[in-house]
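Justification of computing resources. Each target in the renewal requires a structure prediction run like the one illustrated here; the chain below, 397 residues long, is used simply to show the kind of job we budget for.
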Amino acid sequence: MNSLYRIFNCVSLCSEQLVSIHRFGILRCAVGFVHTTAVCGKSRHETEEQERSVVLRTRFFDEVQKRNKETFLGALETFKHRDKYRRGSVEFIYSAMTRMEEFSVERDLEAYKDLISLFPPGKMIPSNLFQAEFMHYPKHQQCATDVLQQMEDNGLCPDDEMGRILYDRFGTYGHAVRKYQRMLYWMPKFKHISPFPLPNPVPEDALELALLALKRMAVDPQNKIDVFRAEDLPAAATDKCFIASSQAAEQQRLLGEHPADTPVYVEGLHNCWLRKQCVHYFILKADTQKSRAAENNDDEDDEEGNGMFNWHLFFKDEQPKEVIKAPSVHEQDDGTILGMCITETSSRDSLMSWIKLLQKTNPKLAEIPVIFRIRTITSELQTVEDEALDVATVHKA
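Resulting structure tokens:
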């Protein structure tokens, strides 16, 4: 009898605990755990359904013949009217985001608006503070946040219509709406903050890109940019292409004062990025003067404290020193920049033509040996042991 009484008390206690668990909402977590364990053991029928849905999502874009904005928006409209409940919208949006560059709509604001519009309106708006803070419908909100992040990566700022679409889907306190508000605040501030603005989009013509790159890299206001066409190149040139050369009057003076028995170097190729376009350029460079190098070493010794006890007393004879002219902006610690150029093919033959064209405005260059230290585009993929420097010496014929 006592054992039956104990069993009855245990059952009643368990029932009270279940009621309290349900009252505080923990039962949902337990049900979710049971649901996830059941999903782990999916049947073959459910797996086939998932594979069929993946094929269905990609079919909207694979069956399109032309890849443009109209066909992309048409595929979104087809999915929107296929099911009134918009089932599978998250997976479809992720699939569409990966195909936007293929359809050339990765920088189109209307395409992103239509992507956000695929979410069902009104259903995912949080009704209390807890749902808002704990990310109500997290899968859908994360997907909308990823769409906004892709817009930010492409430099696309949302507008008020995009905000209304997000408000109708996720409410005022949704995480996707917070992302939209941060973008709307910060992106206009950073849009015009660069002191060297570039056109958006940048031109696709190689010569226009070369001129933009040289103007951005030239720090001397007196810099002059010359463009040499194929007909301007020497007759012995085998590579007929354009050459954009940049040189200032101060660089011509430095080249005229350069010793004839000391070589100068053509180094490259170096990369200059103009948004998503990469331009390769080369520089004409000379070694640092010995007087400037010794001066820099004395300054380094003083900074490190090695010259702490090298005092110059007033009653001793002063040691006369040579007056050194202040270095120009072209004279750097690692060398003196004497010119820059961008060629259409980035080949050694085009660089040899550039040197011969520079000899017209710099006659002293004909007496100076020129050493080419060139890296080709393919050599960047090689190891350090296998990479070889292309060295040649050019003399005036």
